[in-house]
Automatic annotation (TrEMBL):
Annotated keywords: Iron, Iron-sulfur, Metal-binding, Methyltransferase, Transferase, Transit peptide
Coiled-coil parts of chain: none
Source taxonomy: Bacteria, Bacillati, Actinomycetota, Actinomycetes, Kitasatosporales
Biological process according to GO: methylation; translation
Cellular-component GO terms for this entry: small ribosomal subunit
Protein species of origin: Streptomyces malaysiense
Keyword Methyltransferase: yes
Molecular function as annotated in GO: iron-sulfur cluster binding; metal ion binding; methyltransferase activity; structural constituent of ribosome
InterPro entries (UniProt xref): Mt_RNA_Methyltransferase, Ribosomal_Rsm22-like, SAM-dependent_MTases_sf
Matching Pfam families: Rsm22
Protein name: rRNA methyltransferase
């Protein structure tokens, strides 16, 4: 699709989008204005938003074993990154609806989805997020990298509408202090609406992070294709996308006993793990060789994983 554009137009669109996302959002008109914008977005951002949503959904799926969503609505879905992440997480097909106010994004999303049989019947619909947004009931609702673009009143209206219509809501934002703050705001609203947090938190009590001192976020590795490197001008073969998320549900959920909330530090004969635990506290634990199999597991675990890992037998 990028090949249909003059190279300078795609690179120019990437630069403009990077500046727009750094600048003042919310905006009162779509940032994704035309074909060059959305092709650029799909090439330089969509791989990263896809990997972030996929990581969040994997943690959520672990907490609701055996559950498969019967329908999916993606709000502010843009070019459809979350729809690809959902079809990657759960096999089979289901009714899928993507809502966005940027028609060029929906059009390109629809074209890309032609390559994914599980999205063959997806509906790509123009809709403006706000108090007038009406949603049909859905099993799973995703809101990926969207809250950042909304006024506070639209953010709260969206989360309340989501809570009233879906059985599971997965919200992903940039892994920044501001992104984390928006996730926590949404998490609190979902809990007040009767939802239970399934991931990343081991509980639905208050987040133990003292506001302003730290922020809960994770990292997803994004392989960079040559196309991605071309539009973004980078040379590394990968990038690490930092994201914050919450997955909450009305379904019976089994949250992780604890979650690794920083990159594990591997020292000689020991691994230091920073954990968010069930007792509503953050703690550091040291696993040494003396712990045997647990030490092996600690060496293999990663930032964002559940701890301890599920026994494999
Ligand atoms: C950063 S993009 C994220 C796209 C996609 N969810 C992803 O993860 O790649 C934000 C999306 O939210 C949409 N959006 C922002 N404000 C909106 C509004 N008020 N109503 C509908 N869509 C909106 C934008 O058009 C854009 O597609």
């Amino acid at each position: 699709m990028l090949d249909g554009l003059p190279p300078s137009q795609a690179a120019g669109a990437v630069e403009r989008l990077i500046a727009a996302y750094r600048g003042d959002t919310p905006t009162h008109a779509p940032i994704l204005r035309d074909r060059a914008d959305v092709a650029a977005y799909a090439a330089y951002r969509m791989p990263a938003t896809f990997e972030a949503v996929r990581s969040a959904l994997a943690a959520f799926a672990d907490a609701v074993p055996g559950w498969v969503p019967g329908s999916h609505v993606d709000i502010g879905g843009g070019t459809g990154a979350a729809t690809w992440a959902v079809t990657d997480t759960w096999g089979g097909t289901r009714p899928v609806t993507v809502l966005d106010w940027a028609e060029p994004a929906l059009a390109l999303g629809r074209e890309l989805a032609a390559a994914n049989p599980a999205l063959a019947d997806a509906r790509w619909q123009r809709a403006r997020i706000g108090s007038a947004l009406a949603l049909e009931p859905a099993d799973l609702l995703t809101v990926s990298y969207v809250l950042n673009e909304l006024e506070e009143s639209d953010r709260t209206a969206l989360v309340d509408t989501a809570a009233a219509t879906a059985r599971a809501v997965v919200i992903v934002e940039a892994g920044t202090p501001a992104g984390y703050a928006r996730v926590i705001e949404a998490r609190d609203r979902l809990i007040r609406a009767g939802f239970e947090v399934a991931a990343p938190c081991p509980h639905s009590a208050a987040c133990p992070i003292v506001p302003g001192t730290d922020w809960c976020h994770f990292s997803a590795r994004v392989p960079r294709s040559s196309l991605h490197r071309r539009v973004k001008g980078g040379t590394l073969a990968y990038e690490d996308e930092k994201f914050s998320y919450v997955a909450a549900t009305r379904l019976p959920a089994e949250p992780a006993p604890a979650r690794v909330v920083r990159r594990p530090q591997i020292r000689k004969g020991q691994v230091l793990l920073d954990l968010c635990g069930p007792d509503e506290e953050l703690c550091r634990t040291t696993i040494t060789k003396r712990h045997g199999d647990l030490y092996k597991a600690a060496r293999d675990t990663d930032w964002g994983s559940a701890w301890p890992p599920e026994p494999t037998v």
